[in-house]
Amino acid sequence: MDTRDIVLIHTTLQNRHGCDPAIDIDAPGASAALSAYQRSRSEEDRAKLPLRAGMRPALFTITRLSQSSMRFVMAGANTLEQAQQAVLVGCHRFTMPDGTEHRAAVTAAGGNIALAEREWLDVIADEFGASAIVELGTAILQWTQAPKRALTPFGSVPGLVLAL
């Protein structure tokens, strides 16, 4: 199972500082670093993100979905529901900056799908905002839709902007 730890880098137009607060979006080179990380979501590009002194970002572990899981996700009635379902099947853990790990309660669904309980969405949204669900779900979908060999399978998130 392919997994990747990612950091929240998008925000809404109304909240310029909605990305992870550890990221110093005003630092020299922040735009270039955020743009590179947006495309790759790689550990190498994450290490280049400018961080505020003494701060660490929260890390979300996402999983590349199986095709069974993808069918479940894409059965969502709209893009928000698809993003929510992507998180329920593709993000079962996040680690806070202090190292505290949070794990979803997971149950088995049909077709060998490990599904987090719906309350997991509220746990994430309460801590990081509802836009985090959209960003995480979109990243999971983009990663799954790209071939495994793709070096930069990620892109922009509909309805959100890169925190610049």
Descriptors for this entry?
164 residues, two-stranded antiparallel ribbon, alpha+beta, four-stranded antiparallel beta sheet
Structural account:
By secondary structure, the protein is an alpha+beta fold. It has one domain. It contains 6 helices and 8 strands; from the N terminus they run ββααβααββββααβ. The mean pLDDT is 91.
Break the fold down into its secondary structure elements and pairings.
Layout: E1 3-6, E2 10-11, H1 30-40, H2 43-47, E3 59-63, H3 67-74, H4 79-90, E4 93-95, E5 101-103, E6 106-109, E7 113-116, H5 119-128, H6 130-145, E8 161-162
Antiparallel strand pairs: 1-3, 2-8, 3-4, 4-5, 6-7
Helix pairs in contact: 3-4, 4-6, 5-6
Q: Strand pairing plus helix content: what structural class?
A: alpha+beta
How much β-strand is present in the residues?
A: 15-25%
Q: Work out the radius of gyration.
A: 15 Å
Helix and strand run: EEHHEHHEEEEHHE
Q: Tell how many strands the DSSP assignment holds.
A: 8
The biggest beta sheet reads: 4 strands, antiparallel
